[in-house]
What we know:
Blueprint: E1 7-9, E2 23-28, E3 31-36, H1 40-44, H2 49-57, H3 62-77, E4 84-89, H4 95-103, E5 106-113, H5 116-125, E6 132-135, H6 143-150, E7 156-159, H7 170-179, E8 185-191, H8 203-213, E9 215-227, E10 233-243
Parallel strand pairs: 4-5, 4-7, 5-6, 7-8
Antiparallel strand pairs: 1-2, 2-3, 8-10, 9-10
Helix pairs in contact: 3-4
The chain binds S-adenosylmethionine.
Amino acid sequence: MTTCNLQIEYPDKSCVLDQDEEFFHVVTDDGQERIKIHEYDRVYDIPGLYEEVVYNRLQCDSPQVISDLLKDTLQDHGDGQDPLRVLDFGAGNGIVGECLREAVDTEAIVGIDIIKEAKKAVKRDRPEIYDDYYVMDLSQPESHDEEKLNNWNFNALVTVAALGFGDIPTQAFINAFNLVNNNSWVVFNIKDRFFSEDDETGYNEILQDMIGNNLKVYKKHHYCHRLSMAGEPLYYYAVVGRKEVNF
Ligand SMILES: C[S@@+](CC[C@H](N)C(=O)[O-])C[C@H]1O[C@@H](n2cnc3c(N)ncnc32)[C@H](O)[C@@H]1O
């Protein structure tokens, strides 16, 4: 993909903000543009910007961590099943799809994101990664969208860095969980606070319920997802499990 020749200015390390408030400046001939990391439409529109800020500067390694955990789990518990038909939910500009293709045997990877700029960035930067990519809102999926997705016969759901923080709401995650077959691999990461009693997003409640009744967990790994702009580690849980029944 295009390499990044952008001039980016970062706030002083003393500027401590919650993740969804963090920003930087892109310097152009016309002046400075202030962009929040979570303004994904604006970030994806500039080739290489997401990779430079999130992966190089803030050292995010989650797509690789998640792919490697899935690979290890398949080696230990995969019982020689079919290659994976993966739904990458909140796929963004395709880095997760790229890592999954390298790490595990896939028959198909399909991306979904809620914004069209993500699909545009995938077409521009990683056109060969996804078998299809849909711009869809799974909070209240249309029946024709559900039908389209069911035709993929998914046996894996992967969601990286997209739960909580005003991104994927709990109902959309539940709908995606219910879209994949029983026995599917379900792999996701989530900020540790959202998977604890301090959670205010609703995720802790549904995950605890799911794990008790619908999802058998094989790995739960606490790790540094990325650094904050102030240089502090931001810890997430990565979870690999297998769906038992619909939620
Ligand atoms: C931090 S990015 C992560 C992108 C990618 N998974 C990665 O790890 O590089 C979060 C992504 O979730 C998407 N997103 C937010 N809300 C969503 C929703 N309700 N349904 C689908 N995608 C959503 C955003 O548009 C964005 O592309």
